[in-house]
């Protein structure tokens, strides 16, 4: 849990997950590309629209919900930053993951949030959906998937 920081903080410490030249000489470099169903690619990127959602103007709640969602995917949280535009305004924020990122932009006046979850390796972005539903109670979820770094 050392990788977790408080909402709105940025970690100045390097990640323990980075390989150094010294590490590479001892162990072979791991390939984090995925091979599933005969397809090889970097990772899965979900684009998620939440309609009729709640709690979209509370940066602390959004931070906690996205952290729960990121951990559910199997990802490692490196740091996060969330910006509240004004009292009762929207929130834009990101969690930087060792495996990529989770981001949100919210429009509480429209009960709408735009999120994306991009993870590589063994992480499963679909495991984040239940946490997002619990945290934001959307009436409707629109979802699309894109395989990033698709190898021909």
Automatic annotation (TrEMBL):
The keyword Lyase applies. Residues 1-25 are annotated as: Disordered. Binds 1 pyruvoyl group covalently per subunit. It is an enzyme of class 4 (lyase). The modification Pyruvic acid (Ser) is found at residue 100. It holds the Pfam family AdoMet_dc. Keywords: Autocatalytic cleavage, Decarboxylase, Lyase, Polyamine biosynthesis, Pyruvate, S-adenosyl-L-methionine, Schiff base, Spermidine biosynthesis, Zymogen. This is S-adenosylmethionine decarboxylase proenzyme.
């Amino acid at each position: 849990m050392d990788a977790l920081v408080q909402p709105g903080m940025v970690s100045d410490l390097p990640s323990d997950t980075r390989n150094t030249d010294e590490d590479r000489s001892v162990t072979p470099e791991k390939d984090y590309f995925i091979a599933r169903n005969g397809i090889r690619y970097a990772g899965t990127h979900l684009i998620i629209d939440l309609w009729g959602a709640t709690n979209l103007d509370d940066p602390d709640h959004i931070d906690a919900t996205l952290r729960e969602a990121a951990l559910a995917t199997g990802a490692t949280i490196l740091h996060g930053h969330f910006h509240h535009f004004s009292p009762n305004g929207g929130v834009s924020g990101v969690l930087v993951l060792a495996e990529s990122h989770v981001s949100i932009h919210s429009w509480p006046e429209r009960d709408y949030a735009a999120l994306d979850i991009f993870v590589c390796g063994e992480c499963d972005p679909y495991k984040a959906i239940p946490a997002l539903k619990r945290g934001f109670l959307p009436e409707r979820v629109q979802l699309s998937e894109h395989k990033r770094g698709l190898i021909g």
